[in-house]
Amino acid sequence: MANSCKFPQKPHAKYAEVSDKLWMTCRECGDMIYSKKFHSNSKVCPSCGYYAAMTPVERFELLFDGAKFETIEMPIPSDDPLKFTDKVSYADRLKKYRKSTGEQDVVQTAVGKIDGVETVVLCFNFAFMGGSMGRAVGEGIMKAAGEALARKAPFVLIPASGGARMQEGINSLMQMPRTLMAIEDLKNAGLPYIVVLTNPTTGGVTASFAMVGDVHIAEKGAVIAFAGRRVIEGTIGEKLPDDFQTAEYLREHGMVDIVVERSELKSTLGNVLSLLTNVKKK
Amino acid sequence: MANSCKFPQKPHAKYAEVSDKLWMTCRECGDMIYSKKFHSNSKVCPSCGYYAAMTPVERFELLFDGAKFETIEMPIPSDDPLKFTDKVSYADRLKKYRKSTGEQDVVQTAVGKIDGVETVVLCFNFAFMGGSMGRAVGEGIMKAAGEALARKAPFVLIPASGGARMQEGINSLMQMPRTLMAIEDLKNAGLPYIVVLTNPTTGGVTASFAMVGDVHIAEKGAVIAFAGRRVIEGTIGEKLPDDFQTAEYLREHGMVDIVVERSELKSTLGNVLSLLTNVKKK
Amino acid sequence: MVQLLPFEKSLEKLEVGTPAYDKELASIYNKLSSYQKTLVSRHADRPHGLDYINRIFTDFQELAGDRFYGEDQALIGGLARLDGMPVVVLAQEKGHDIATRQKHNFGLAKPEGYRKAIRLMKMADQFGLPVISLVDTDGAFCGAESEERGVGEAIAQATAQCLRLSVPMISVIIGAGGSGGAIAIAAADKVFMLEHSVYSVISPEGCASILWRDPMMKEAAADAMKITAQDLKKMNIIDGIIDEPVGGAQRARFDAMDSVKTFVVKELKALMKLSSKDLQTQRRKKYDALTR
Amino acid sequence: MVQLLPFEKSLEKLEVGTPAYDKELASIYNKLSSYQKTLVSRHADRPHGLDYINRIFTDFQELAGDRFYGEDQALIGGLARLDGMPVVVLAQEKGHDIATRQKHNFGLAKPEGYRKAIRLMKMADQFGLPVISLVDTDGAFCGAESEERGVGEAIAQATAQCLRLSVPMISVIIGAGGSGGAIAIAAADKVFMLEHSVYSVISPEGCASILWRDPMMKEAAADAMKITAQDLKKMNIIDGIIDEPVGGAQRARFDAMDSVKTFVVKELKALMKLSSKDLQTQRRKKYDALTR
Ligand SMILES: [Zn+2]
Ligand SMILES: [Zn+2]
Q: What global pTM score does this model have?
């Protein structure tokens, strides 16, 4: 069920294509950046400070002590409950993303120690169909929460999602109550549930498991939204402030506890986990 | 402890001085009004609709079925804990109000049926030192809540208060946690706690027992405020809307459930009590 | 006269009540497409939340406010009796003319609406009253003020509160079950849909715009997403379908509402026989199994 | 150099640290009037909430927001360790210069501040962490927006939440204990006051304006209301007094804060020996007996 993987310093091979090249272009500022420096800097652009998306394995390496962790296999529900086709069939889309990411679906989970506290961490892969929430995400969260419950360990969830997976229709929506029920079990057991909001966390995800953490940590500048900015500007004709729906804006509006630099994420998370689980700091 | 009093239709003799006169002047509009009509109309001015303050006994007569109720004796703590004197001594002030109202302090409590539901009702007398909250108010609320608990009856509290009784200093402030603890007991026992906000309900009262009801009913137009309008206008220099801190304004701002005409108060309260206690309506 | 929908044009020439009319009406309504059902579910004359409250409940006492920020008339709540049983009722209300649509914000609730729902569900729990919710919304309000006050958080907490209840909860989708705006008050023990109601993760128009990049593909999107009561029952997402009069609830409002009442009362009585513990165990199993 | 208060004028001619200075200082502070104590409690150089957080706690992690509306820097909250023990800390902060006073709104908290406190107290309960509150406010913020969002309700609920905790709570009045704005986070198992702090239902100025109709009567009002730590201890309203360095906490900030730490740690350890049930029984008895 859980197979042990210990990763070296460099990112997981599956996601490392880009780091084969010596130089790369920052998606944000367009600067040519030294690939090694970008990766050793947790995928923060050394020129403009842009936070590039991280894969789950990269997150695990960043967060777990000594980059050591065990992965927990995620359940993969049968494909395509609606036999959905738009311009492309959902079945084909799934194939494409499975090929490009090497993963079966969005979420991956691992268990390891963070500042000495055994913790279950579930992370979204935005590269897989925009991190969209279908049955696989729901089942994955339920499995991961169950694992935390069984181990009496805190649960850290790191969303990055464009929202619902429309190709699963109502099945996607139903993951909202299902995941909330799994989180409720952790709360009843007195186990910490921490959400680390990363860019972007939008749509149905922010109307369910991503907004009921005991503590909400958000990466600097991350966009966190229920309805997208353009939807609001379009339908309502309101002019929105520049920082609308950023991590900082949400902190100001009472929804986020802590805004962190990516470089401080591990230590911040470690401190919070240690305080909530009453483990003495190393 | 509880002595039975059954009152006829007309107000309690102690408060009825004014009704001895055939005609009286409305404090709000200045119209000469027929005293009998004013009183049969629950002290609402027939000319301008002004809600005159009601004494506890008048409230009891208005609310209890057949105007029948038993009063519950209120504990009266020893006087003047601080030996307080400003321009007049607190001891003298107390004497004056005891003489003018015929009561020992602000609150009075009675038990009776409202639409068939046995209910404990505590009511403030604004005429007694502006309904100010001292130890007598605190002890009275604790006693009344205890009575509701013992009878497994709902508790209805009808504040009318200018706030803390400064002459008791910190003793007044301490009634906030003390009364909240008494209310908490009712909630733990699953007994309804209804607040009927009347004009005026201000100061410390609105920062304690008056704002933690399961249901908040407010009389039309009642001023309900923590800080007074003039204090805010004075210190902040903000221009305030006309309806600021009225019952209607508080409903709009999520703090009041129901705004009622005085003539509908009994039936509204009866319906709510009946629904919350699962008693079939007569 | 009820306003005719585009696909009802053939009724124009027929006299209401004649056998020909009835036959044509039945024929149209026997083969409604998913998108046609969407239009029926949005029909202006369809009974709305407040219509149900006035028709099938007694002793209704509206309770206002979230005790934090405001009062939201898009989501009405209060105490009432259903067949003599005291309940907490939550109902989305779209309004039926300009004034009432504005008052109720077209049934698009803001955070304070969902937080009021949470407060009233806690009250239901506190006093052992079942919760009945009537769902009819195109979704939560998508405005800056909704985001500012954390509409996502409010929906999540409302949904969690449904699942946390120790009392029975029944939801009926009476018109549109619009995504998160609906589930917030529809994560119930039993969820029923009216025959011509729809329930979906995004509107057909929205889905078409995003996936087809063409809002005109709304019919295809409606079909593909499987949003009708019949689709959802087949997938075991909902627990049952409440029949509507021929031609839809908009053509026989009282009959439609009365059959909702009969249906819900029967289901509620069955749920009320369960202990809180059994109820919660059953609820947990239901949501565990859902979509599996 | 610490700013001299009006009644400290006699120190001007003396050199700091000389025996004459020390003697004069001690003599002034041995016979402070109630209103003079009020001025000491408000001294700008007195250690404030954040000073204590930085000095006597470790691993502090501020947590922001009420999850409803906003973040209020007048009332700081978070997780921290006190002598190695994880706790939830709540601290009112007045600021010490123009920029920080504005940021912290002079320590005048709005509803969202009190609702954040409620959230963090619930978190403390959930994870079995004691609550330490450092009280220093002239009161809750008196503005229209405070009333709009129900500051009274927020204070009431925060006070009730203190009393509902299953974990120990200790409050220290470090400066001004301003009425409802203070009690909201001070309805604790143990309430201590610094030697020169004050705690009252209204400010002396406010009391004088209302009862004497003359704000200049503030000294008389301060005396009459009995607002000093010494008065409150005599009336058994508080559980103890924490000594300050001679001349007040503003003259030896670290010493003052360190003695608060020593005092609180000792008391906390005693409370942590009690079961939740015993703690709650003891709390109930305390508040039952208070002012009787
Ligand atoms: Zn860059
Ligand atoms: Zn008049």
A: 0.95
